[in-house]
Amino acid sequence: MRPLPTLAYGLLALPLAFAALPLYVHVPAFYANVTGLDLGLLGAILLLARLLDAGIDPWLGWLADRVSRRRMVALSLLPFAVGFVALLNPPAEYAAPWLLASLLLTYAGFSAATVAYQAWGAAVGNDAPERTRLVASREAFGLLGVLVAAALPALLAVALNDGIARLAWVLPVLLVLAGGVTLARVGEGDPRVAVGSALLPALRAVLRDTAFRRLLLVFICNGFAAAIPATLFLFFVADILQAESASGPLLAAYFLAGAASLPLWLKLSTRIGRPRAWLLAMGVAMLAFAGAGLLGPGDVALFAVVCVASGLALGADLALPAALAADLGERQGRSGACFGVWNFFAKLNLALAAGIALPLLGVFDYRPGSGEGQAALVFAYALLPLLFKALAALLLWRWRNSLEVES
Known about the structure:
Blueprint: H1 3-11, H2 13-34, H3 39-64, H4 69-87, H5 95-124, H6 128-156, H7 160-167, H8 171-185, H9 199-207, H10 210-239, H11 247-272, H12 274-292, H13 300-332, H14 335-363, H15 374-399
Helix pairs in contact: 1-6, 1-8, 2-6, 2-8, 2-10, 3-5, 3-14, 4-5, 4-8, 5-13, 5-14, 6-7, 6-11, 6-13, 10-13, 10-14, 10-15, 11-12, 11-13, 12-13, 12-15, 13-14
């Protein structure tokens, strides 16, 4: 594959990931601080919105196997942009229904664009190495988008929450610029024709693949381990480290390390295989989670080391399992349905992380900024993810020889 189509394909991931950081990291703390929503109510709204969002992904994946993926991406960007601007500019009153409505609109556009975009990449790639490069390009630009989103709030305003609100107006510009290049430079690809026309048979066919089911289970355990700290990151920095102003640089260090590690993981995966490279990354992440559980007020420098270590593992988490899934989906001729199911479980992890962790912290008397319930926050942020990461590693080790598709 020529470099230009590979880079042009990956470019659209920049605005998609730019919005994903506020959606999954900033929104919980932003609404808790700006609107004063109770953590239990906030967690319930996030859980409901994310469950509804996850529920449409299998249908979106089925649809992406039957329509032009380029056109599906293009049509999805408008509701995505409108919903995102509304989400980060809540009114003084009726914050709860505003949050739910704006989340649903944002998720609808974001999900349709993401599923079609992933399936499009699987169709453009001709073999496993090309699909891995396309995924790596997508994730590299995605990490760049996250870095921009992490750094901008501090540049746009003195107060963190004001900077987050102003992020909303940057997204439409990025979508026009990046989306224009991707849609103009990347062809439709040569997708295999999906067999059958009904939704449920297509999903059953995807899930009948033993290798895909195994990969999905590893992905679920690993994803839940990542979703909990993503939801609680800002709370941890503000109340455990007592360094709220450092949240932007720490996020930037995390994602910068992830971007820098992508070429290393790709090179390593060609030598030892993608499952074994991913397993090694899980070991690095477990060390990072264990270290985070030992930190306290003022340990910003040590937490920066934790962020860099976990960021190094992030590069493998982003590129390798998605590349394995693309191969398995394309082998069936159902890459759209495959990524519909894949994204359903990715979002289910995020939904459960918010819907379980936030109310649970409320039960144990954690209140942002109060100094109470901090032991529960440390357990939820660092130690609970460590357990799920260990389970994912155990399963991956057991099935490491059955997840690769021979080109």
